Amino acid sequence: MSFGGTALSFLLLTALLLPTAHGGPLDAPVITLGEKKSLFGEKAQANEYVSYALYYWPDPANPEGPYKPIDGKKNQRLRSMDDSGKMAAFIGTVCSLGRQYELNRDPRAASRAGEWLRAWFIAPATRMQPHLKYAQIRPGHRTEGDGGGIIDLYRMPDFLDALAALKRSGALTKEEWKRVDAWLNQYYAWLATSRQGRHAHTRSNNHYLFYVAQCAHLAHFLGRDNEARQWLAEAFANMDRHIAPDGSQPEELKRAEPWQYSVYTLQAWGYLVQIAERMGDKNYRYRKTAAGASIQKAADYLLPFRTHPEAWPWKGSRAGTPLPAIFEPSRPDKEKQDRP
């Protein structure tokens, strides 16, 4: 079990609150990564993203030794010293601005989004290096991340949707969009070839699913639909590792916050459903494995506890967090679970 995963509530709230703290996404100052100060021996350079594992704490029995994991107990002090808030502000603000432009074609939203994109992907002085090599470092264990930090960009599919909307605007010039695409290509290549990416690819919990979701969406965005289909096929082939025949998610039920992590991981499946349906596979969510598991079953397993949270049988947090919107029963295209 990994304790380095970023909690849904933490990153989502950070993404939502940081821009509004300065008056909304149109007014939020552009924040970049900047210079690095090594706190635990990491050798990150300027504009390399650094974050620390959220559930790691000093060991009282060995205060100077490696930090130890305490699942469910967030070390906000560590997070206050890293770049995760800056990343959340960037992703959350661009997603908000992209949505604003998509809804009402507001040129101010496009222009402001362009300023963020130039700062993070284009300007030599502030451009983020296209990797997450130093994401979710476990103090005292390694001076690099082990791949668990790739989940820090779990909202990449939403971000790419925002970029798709903004590409229809005057946010950037054609040449600038080429440089954004080049950054995304470099990051996608890093996911596939780096030690951290290879490690995330072998995991059996939400880290694997968010890794595959990122890869599938990046491949589609970059015009590599055959690769996107391969990622979707791989996720389905591995579904029995993640979803039981009754729809429960055993790896997430082991966590200190089983409801939050079940919903969080369902979001990764939702991202995969989204890209599958976008590419014409309307049956992806209903397709069953030989054992009887399906993505829709995972959603249906959780839905009754939304109306009866007291019936949630697992220790830890009570059922409460809404399911991803794509699984809401009010969706007009939702079909029966037993569709073949």
Automatic annotation (TrEMBL):
A matching Pfam family: Alginate_lyase
Position of the signal peptide: 1-23
GO cellular component, one term: periplasmic space
Keywords: Lyase, Signal
Any one GO molecular function term: lyase activity
Domain of life: Bacteria
All residue ranges annotated as the Alginate lyase domain in the record: 34-312
InterPro entries the UniProt entry points to: Alginate_lyase_dom (IPR008397), Chondroitin_lyas (IPR008929)
Feature: compositional bias, Basic and acidic residues: 330-340
Region feature (Disordered): 314-340
Name by which UniProt lists this protein: Alginate lyase family protein
